[in-house]
């Protein structure tokens, strides 16, 4: 039996990986819509796009954290109101919604991983905008809405920390990298696999609706991630120098501790993701990342 899936934000890093993952599922008939093809702030367009689909994976988002600080209303129109339009359309049509959110809904002042039900208290506009979307899903889809929080996402289809480190490796002898922010580097392809599995579990009635944490297990700092990226890429990790976040002032405050717990997954039959330091080697062995590392070795 064929299931109709809709992937919004299908031109982005995660959206493209979700499409690749679902393409391998013979039971999935997939429609991917980029932000140019579907503006999720347009409720009529959202209703028309959702109609006829059984599962919606929302990868559409305002992701520029610093720009959100300067334009919170615009960011919330996408991350809050846009998600509300999707949730309402799914409620009306009976579709399951898998919505991708962020660790930035938490304040970052914890010492242990944040549980799925931990109190939220975002410290920046981006986090507030994403929390608005989470609340819309919970309100409108109490039985068929799934919020999956992720963090420190990297992949081959967009700019991110890992690609930036490999590109800079070919141009700079040393790199100063923040060593006092802790998180879970997560390969977008690993998250895509998990989202596809969660969608199938939801359709089968095995996964309770609610919030799940879609990050790699284990944790590190940006400094630790940069060193491991260099080491795996055949570059000298001693070229990475640790600095505090104060060395890179940004318009938006970043949580110092964005480590998430994964206690919800056993209820679904879907396993938590592998450790970040197991995901990274697999990612860097893909052709696109391998080419970046090879270019860095040649130029460095």
CATH class assignment of the domain at 3-159 and 185-218 and 258-274:
Alpha Beta
The oligomerization state is single chain
The geometry reads as globular
How far apart are the first and last residues' alpha carbons, in Å?
Answer: 52 Å
User: With helices defined by DSSP (H or I, 4 residues minimum), what is the helix count?
Assistant: 10
Integer-rounded radius of gyration: 19 Å
How confident is the prediction overall: mean pLDDT? 97
Note poorly predicted spans.
none
Order of helices and strands: EHEHEHHEHEEHEEEHEEHEHH
Strand residue content:
15-25%
Number of strands: 12
Secondary-structure arrangement, i.e. CATH architecture of the domain at 3-159 and 185-218 and 258-274: 3-Layer(aba) Sandwich
CATH homology group of the domain at 3-159 and 185-218 and 258-274? NAD(P)-binding Rossmann-like Domain
Structural class: alpha/beta
- How helical, in percent, are the residues? 40-55%
Largest sheet: 6 strands, parallel
Biggest sheet, strands in spatial order? 2-1-3-4-5-10
Secondary structure: elements and pairs:
Layout: E1 3-8, H1 13-23, E2 28-33, H2 43-50, E3 55-58, H3 65-70, H4 72-93, E4 96-102, H5 125-140, E5 145-150, E6 153-154, H6 161-169, E7 175-178, E8 182-183, E9 186-187, H7 188-203, E10 210-213, E11 220-221, H8 222-232, E12 240-243, H9 276-284, H10 287-299
Helix pairs in contact: 1-7, 2-4, 4-5, 6-8, 6-10
Protein model, in words:
- The chain has a domain at 3-159 and 185-218 and 258-274: Rossmann fold (3-Layer(aba) Sandwich).
- It has a six-stranded parallel β-sheet with strand order 2-1-3-4-5-10, sandwiched between helices. A two-stranded parallel ribbon has the order 6-9.
- The model has no long low-confidence stretch (mean pLDDT 97).
- The termini are far apart.
- Helix 1 crosses helix 7 and helix 6 crosses helix 8.
- It has helices spanning 13-23, 43-50, 65-70, 72-93, 125-140, 161-169, 188-203, 222-232, 276-284, 287-299; strands at residues 3-8, 28-33, 55-58, 96-102, 145-150, 153-154, 175-178, 182-183, 186-187, 210-213, 220-221, 240-243.
- Helices cover 40% and strands 16% of the residues.
- With 300 residues, it is an alpha/beta fold.
- It contains ten helices and twelve strands.
